[in-house]
Amino acid sequence: MKILMLARNPNLYSHQRLVEAAEARGHEIDIYDTLRIYMNITSHRPEVRYQGKSLTGYDAIIPRIGASVTYYGAAVLRQFEMMGVWPLNESVAIVRSRDKLRSLQLLAREGIGLPVTAFAHDTRAVDDVLDIAGGEPVVIKLLEGTQGVGVVLADTRRSAKSVIEAFRGAKVNILVQEFIKEAGGADIRTFVVGGKVIAAMKRQGGEGEFRSNIHRGGSATTIKITPEERSTAIRAAKVMGLNVAGVDLLRANHGPVVMEVNSSPGLEGIEGATEIDVAGAIIDFMAANHGPAKTKTKGKG
Ligand code: ADP
Questions:
Q1: Predicted local distance difference test score (pLDDT) of residue 297
Q2: What distance in angstroms lies between residue 82's CA and the mean position of ligand 1's atoms?
Q3: What is the tens place of the pLDDT at every residue in 174-186?
Q4: Which domain does 210 fall in, by range?
Q5: Which of 191, 201, 240, 292 is the most exposed place for a label (fewest CB within 10 A)?
Q6: DSSP state of 210
Q7: Alpha-carbon distance 34 to 24, whole Å?
Q8: Distance between start and end Cα atoms, the chain
Q9: What is the sign, positive or negative, of the torsion defined by CA atoms of 256, 88, 141, 150?
């Protein structure tokens, strides 16, 4: 295979591992900075260019598109899809997964377990919103937050109301969510590739922290997941239309609930915790499944 990876920083662990795994298997792989690619979007023959030359001859694309460049990155990927190049994850699925609210709505429609979640614009019905989320304590989340920033646990109604008012005052969108206390500050990251969970780790928040993000001092260990957790993760990736996904679960009393489905999951934490060759599994999946006529949406959608 001749692979093109869209990534802003070629030196990240995840990107280096994918290059290593591809080359070890005899594939050719080039990395291009997503934001330095440009294109003529009106041409009958779609084309993608970089420093004056046309990027052609690729069999497959690995999109590693950061949240801050979703819009441009999806446009570049869509252009490749229209040229018939097979993407590991399709642009439509990536864009879908980047919208937290839309993702939860799609997962709920398919009956996948979720923390009870309320979404409102107006703060006048705040008591009802808090009741929907099961009453305090509740978790209040910025829709655009990542790495645990903007995720607040409010223990009392009074504090919940002031947090909601503060966020609304700042004109940001928020979700109000049931607090899954029994998760004990831990979550499970499952790594799905081609409809299978190939690795799973437990992330535990630091002392006194309900958020398990590694960036916030959490630690990761390997974990054996239950069949129900496995099928929940696989279904969540499928609903989002992602071949590769990091599906984050919480262990609730009533079973696993999905918190988030990530379309560009990092490899460092999961390979470190589990010692599984995740990069190799991704490349093997690509080798077995790529093909010019195999893109489902070709950017339509
Ligand atoms: P981000 O996408 O910014 O990482 P998350 O929604 O994943 O935000 O939340 C960060 C962490 O907070 C999660 O990994 C989890 O440990 C904890 N958390 C989030 N929502 C809940 C919840 N409803 N109940 C219990 N813990 C939660």
A1: 65
A2: 36
A3: 899 999 999 999 9
A4: 182-285
A5: 292
A6: S
A7: 24
A8: 27
A9: positive
Per-residue pLDDT at 300: 57
pLDDT in tens, 82-119: 999 999 999 999 999 999 999 999 999 999 999 999 99
Overall pTM > 0.90: yes
Distance (angstroms) between ligand 1 centre and the Cα of 211 equals 6
Phi/psi for 246 (5° steps) reads -100, 110
- Could you tell which of 97, 107, 187 is best to mutate to test the pocket of ligand 1, judged by most ligand atoms within 8 Å of the CB? 187
**Res 218 pLDDT > 90:** no
Query: What are the backbone dihedrals phi and psi of residue 195, each rounded to the nearest 5 degrees, phi first?
Result: 75, 15
Residue 296 has pLDDT above 80, yes or no: no
Which residue is listed with tokens 């009106």?
42
Å from CA of 7 to ligand 1 middle: 26
15 and 38 belong to one structural domain: yes
Q: Which residues line ligand 1 (CB under 6 A)?
A: 115, 139, 141, 145-148, 151, 177-180, 183, 187, 205, 210-213, 248, 250, 259-260
Closest ligand 1 atom to 145 CA: 3
> Is 67 found in the same domain as 14?
yes
Residue 298 pLDDT? 59
Q: How many structural domains does the chain have?
A: 3
pLDDT at 120 over 90: no
**Does one domain contain both 78 and 129?**
no
